[in-house]
Amino acid sequence: MRESVRDRLLAGYDGTADRDGVSGKRLAERLATLALIGETEDGGVNRPGFSAEEKRAKEQVMEWMREAGLDVRMDGAGNVIGRLDGKSDGPAFAAGSHVDSVPNGGNFDGPLGVLSALEVVEAWKETGYEPPVPVEVIIFSEEEGSRFGAGIMGSQAMTGDMGHEALSVLSDSEGNSFEEVISAYGTTVDEFLGAARDLKEIGFYAEIHIEQGKLLEQAGLPAGIVKGIAGPAWLNVVFRGTAGHAGNTPMIGRRDPLVAAGRFLHEVSSLPAQFSDTAVATVGKLNVSPNGANVIPEEVALTVDIRDLDKTARDGLVEKVRETAKRCAVEGGVEVSLDLASSIDPVPVPDEVREELGQVFEEAGIRPMELMSGAGHDAMILGGHVPMAMIFVKSIEGISHNPAEWSDLGDCITAVHLLKQFAEQRMVKMAAHEG
Prior knowledge:
Number of domains: 2
Helix content: 25-40%
Radius of gyration: 23 Å
Order of helices and strands: HHHEEEHEHHHHEHEEEHEEEHEEHEHEH
CATH architecture of the largest domain: 3-Layer(aba) Sandwich
Distance between the termini: 58 Å
Low-confidence stretches: none
Structural class: alpha/beta
Number of strands: 15
């Protein structure tokens, strides 16, 4: 029998970090509870954005939020906001992440950020600490993008960065439009767009996330400081040809979009190196239609995920990928359509914030190692509007988006303490600024 997430987390935890109201057992039990919602046979989770499983996970966290004394609401985009009043009014210190997953994903990507923020609030409740400014714990909708091929949707809705036109062209793998999916979820397109907030209500945003890499593990550090987030661009590519019988259609004259797509995939892997050492291009999703063993495909749809720390290089790579798709279509005798589903600028973390976080790390006896994030996060969207910070937690073997994804409980609790100390210091500054 597979060891439960709770038992595995607690087996390697000695409890010495349980102080100042922070509880490793509580965090472990909550991570384990969410791991059961959408659980897969491999021990991972399937919680696509705007699915019943994602909503159930949100509702579970909402229950915990209320027990912790937060006022809780869900906006028209499905984002959950748990709010704790401070000694004074003014912009809030916000922290959170998401609970949706990639197909058969892991148990830490997203939930750790949400539950860590909630654990900080739980610690304040137990110690009687009253924050000087309001605090918000946020769960953002559809961060991963596994439903529509367009991620970080909830945070974009909250910041007003997503409009009606972008939503109108979205559909999931089953052909359901965004309007149909969001309606089944219990809201509407207009309510989704109405989730945009006056961002003067948020004075700062912080997010804990697993590293999804090996640098912290190699350095022997439990956590690190994110210095910036690479900007992703998602290019949807559709090759269209002519369907036919696999046995009765001669090879000469075929218009096979899968052959063109295969040539394109091969070439894409060599393009990033032409622009920078940090640029990447990935195709992780491909749909073949009609997808029959004895049928020449009529259509092949795929998404190219393109990222870099440098916006100029990233945009240059996007154009090169476009040109390559068009050439492969011509060479294959098929048609191609291209749509830039999303494009987000890289977001640096302000120097002042990194220095402040560095001091918190040093006071905790941890070397403040700075890392870049090649993955997109809700912090990237919020960071385009308000000051933000991210703390990475060590990932075992760097595995992510996989049931084997794991971070030790001791490292997770260390990050909770770092967030708690940083939040208390930052909120004092925020209150002084308002005063």
